[in-house]
Amino acid sequence: MEQSRRRQRLFFQRGKCEELSWNSNLWKIAGGILYFCSVPSIAEIYASPPIGQLLKVEGWIRTRRTTRTVSFVELQDGSTLKALQLVLSHEKISLDRIEATLHTGASIAVWGILRSTPDRPQPFEIEVEDFILYGEADPTTYPLQKKAHSLEFLREISHLRPRTRTFQAIFRIRSGLSFAIHQYFQERGFVYVHTPILTPSDCEGGGQLFQVTTLALEALPRHPDGRIAYEKDFFGRPAYLTVSGQLEGEMLSMGLGKIYTFGPTFRAEPSHTPRHLAEFWMIEPEMAFYDLDMTMDLAEDFLQFLTKAILQRHREELEFLREHYEEKLIHELEKVAESRFIRLSYTEAIDILNKSGKSFQFPTSWGSDLQAEHERYLVEEYAGQPVIVYNYPKEIKAFYMRQNDDGRTVAAFDVLFPRIGEVIGGSQREERYEQLLRRMEERGMDPFPYQNYLDIRRYGSVPHSGFGLGLERFLLFLTGMTNVRDVIPFFRSAGQMA
RNA sequence: GCCCGCUUAGCUCAGCGGUUAGAGCAUCUGGCUGUUAACCAGAGGGUCGCAGGUUCGAAUCCUGCAGCGGGCGCCA
User: Fold this and answer.
1) CA distance A267 to A276
2) How far apart are CA A168 and CA A451, in angstroms?
3) CA gap A356, A348 in Å, rounded
4) Which is more confident, A34 or A309?
5) What are phi and psi of A341, to 5 degrees?
6) Has residue A9 got a pLDDT over 80?
7) DSSP label at residue A356
């Protein structure tokens, strides 16, 4: 911006005017003098309006309103949720040309002077000298209109929904959140590591995996006994898409100290809910020498840092989403950013639920997992703010979580948020070789695929901990959306590839 | 995987056994002293998701299927 404005102040040679083309930033005025136009984004114009200057602006048409002598176009270019009003005098630009081309969704470049309009709803507008059409948008078939559309409808046109302010706001917040996540960890000495996407084992045994193969599915090579001949597959053995980078993250943290992963994760579970995706993004920090309390402190500080970052850096987007989707959005974010999370041991949580006087669909008793209705009660009725539940019964948690001295609980924790439930799950890991092996045997797990994972307990093992944050679920909280399909650009879920 | 709901014009929806299926917005046409979801008038636009059944008669009732949405489970 600064550079292009300086350029505009330079003088240029006299000469004949070039034909306007899409990449032309020249403009001829009376006398045949050629000027360079600056080509600011709409965000730059709002940040520092170059009133009275000749500009070239490019974007997509949001709406057009035509009166007898003049037409108004609202132009958006993605740089801000705000639109730029263009004024087209029918004396300069024929009404026929306007009506033939300037429809909602069409893309154009305009040249014109920025005029201040202090007595109008918008602060300024472009008095258009001329425009060119990049791409038309036939109004009889273009799906988007100037009126609001349902999120369900927009899900069917995932290639066009980035044209809406709703999705511009969401994807800007998603971008800002990703940046803030890196910022938080980088400023605190964490190393960003890339754990593999292709994995050899169905680690954790729980989630269903997507199998990856180069074998011809219609003619699988088989052994005489009918087994599939995986030695002919690409890796010489079965391969899958990762369901978590945690096990590799632990190995990396045993050398690098504090690490985090931030990447895609794949689950082949046919869950038809507003909270599940087959491909989603997860952040998994893993810290050597961290116990459960330190990790819960980190998780709370992390979530508050991210929430504050979005409040500070994405006010415009939050205001838009608050106005159109969730009245309490900013209020909720501020509350989370400011107040300490309530910490309850699992045993305390069960006690509170038992004494609540509520009749739950699933009864609460020590040893059973907390259901969605229980989490909702704890967060929304009991605490009124985020809750961390820790020290769960070992039977309902994963094999790698560290056993507590009581013999019946593990050092696990979940962070429960208003509206979205569990946003973080984490634990101190079992760093003692014998205990880990015994846990796996109790569960009937074959330790063979976990030799490397066990090995790091044999050589220089240390107490360590980590957690996982589901990016899309946290984005539900930050944006006020209620379906994870609306916070990822192109969703993949059971039976659907947007 | 289990349960519930929805599917009518490009979009959002009304009609829920009885003439030729409606509204707003969008589109098109005309009008309008610069509009702000502009406004005013008019026009075009529908195999009422698909298949079958009940009935003198089905958008409407029943069955199956499909798609979408939601609740629960699993989880992040």
Assistant:
1) 9
2) 46
3) 12
4) A309
5) -75, 145
6) no
7) S
Which helix (H) or strand (E) covers residue A474, if one does? helix A471-479
DSSP string, A43-99: HHHHHS--TT-EEEEEEEEEEEEE-SSEEEEEEE-SS-SS-EEEEEETTTS-HHHHH
What pLDDT, on a 0 to 100 scale, did the predictor assign at position A149? 85
C1’ B32 / CA A331, Å: 44
ipTM: 0.90
What phi, psi does A82 have (nearest 5°)?
Answer: -75, 150
Task: Determine the nucleotide nearest to A270 by Cα–C1' distance.
Answer: B1
CA A427 to chain centre: 24
The number of angstroms, rounded, from the C-alpha of A157 to the middle of its chain's C-alpha atoms is 19
- pLDDT tens for A382-428 read 999 999 999 999 999 999 999 999 999 999 999 999 999 999 999 99
- Spatial distance from the CA of A318 to the C1' of B72 (Å): 31
More confident residue, A361 or A9: A361
Separation of CA A96 and C1' B42 in angstroms? 21
Mean pLDDT, range A158-181, rounded to an integer: 95
A247 has pLDDT over 50? yes
What is the DSSP pairing of strand A387-393 with strand A409-417? antiparallel
Query: Which tokens sit at A148?
Result: 């609001």
Question: CA of A143 and C1' of B60: distance in angstroms?
Answer: 30
How far apart are alpha carbons A91 and A110 in whole angstroms?
A: 16
Residue A439: pLDDT above 90?
yes
| Helix axes A165-186 and A471-479, enclosed angle (nearest 10) | 120
pLDDT value, residue A4: 42
A372-385 residue pLDDT tens: 999 999 999 999 99
Q: Which nucleotide is nearest to A70 (CA to C1')?
A: B34
CB atoms within 10 A of CB A373: 14
Give strand B nucleotides closer than 7 A to any protein Cβ: 1-3, 10-13, 24-29, 31-38, 67-76
Buried-state track A6-22, b at ≥16 Cβ within 10 A, e below 16: eebeeeeeeeeeeebee
Nucleotide at minimal C1' distance from the A472 CA: B76
Phi, psi at residue A259, to the nearest 5°? Answer: -130, 165
Q: How far is the CA of A158 from the C1' of B66 (A)?
A: 21
Q: For strand A26-29 and strand A33-36, is the pairing parallel, antiparallel, or unpaired?
A: antiparallel
C-alpha–C-alpha distance, residues A37 and A23, integer Å:
11
Whole-angstrom Cα distance, residue A371 to residue A72? 54
